[in-house]
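Input record (one chain):
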Amino acid sequence: MMIADMSANVASEAAEALKNVDISSAGWGLLELFEKGGPLMWALLFLSVIAMMVFIICLWTTRQSAVLPQRMVMAVESCIRRKDYAVLMSMCERDGSSFALTVHVIVMFLQRNPRASMEEVREVAGAEGARQANILTRQINWLSDIGAIAPMIGLLGTVLGMMKTFMEMAAGNFEGVKQMQMASGIAEAMITTAGGLVLAIPSMAAYVFFRSRVQKRITDMEVAVTHILSVIAVQMDREKRLSSTYQRGTASEVMDDDL
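The corresponding structure, as predicted from the sequence alone:
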C-alpha cells in the first residue's frame, strides 16, 4: 500500500507540474525535439538519410526505361530476324536496361553454342531474368528493413528513457518531480518512439509502392523476353528446315551423279 500511495503521489505531482508548464516557451522545435530525444536520435537520423538515398535509387532503377524500354523490344526483334547479332550485342551493351542485359546473355549463349536446343536457351533466359528481378527486389527490400529497424530503435529509446525516470524515482528525489527533473526521461522515451515511427511509416509506404511497381516491371519484362524467345524459336526452326532441305537436295544430286 505504501508503494501504491507513493506512486499515486508521484503521478499526481507530475500531472500538476505538467499543467504548470508553459508550452509556448518550451521551444518544441525540430532541433529541440532532436536534442531531447537522446543519443539514439542520431541512429534514427542516420537511418533516415539511408532511407532517402534508397528511395532515390529505387525511383531511378525501377523506371520504365531502366527495366523495359519499349523501343528496345522492337529493335531486338528486328535484329534477331535479320540475324544481325553483332549490332544487337552492341545495342544491348549501350542500353544497359534489365531487358537488354537479359537479351545480351541470351545472344551470347547462342553465339557460343550454335547447336544449343531451345530448351537450353529458355533455361539461360530464365536464369538471367531471375537474376535481374532479384536485383530490383533486393533494392526495395532495404526500405522494408529500415521500416522494421526504426521502430525497434524507438522502442530501445523508450526503454532507456523509462529506466532513467525510474532510476530517479528510486533515488527518492520526489521533489524533483515538481521541478520537472523527471520529465526529461519520459520526454526522451516518447520522442524516440515517435521518431522511430515517423521514419518507419514512410519507409514501409515507399516499400509497398515500389514492390507493386517492381512486380509490374518484372511481369512486363517476362512477357517481352517470352516474345523474343518465340522469335528465336521460329528462326531456329526455319534454319533446321532449310538445313534439312539442303541435305536432301545434296543427297539427290549425289544419287543422280551415280546413276
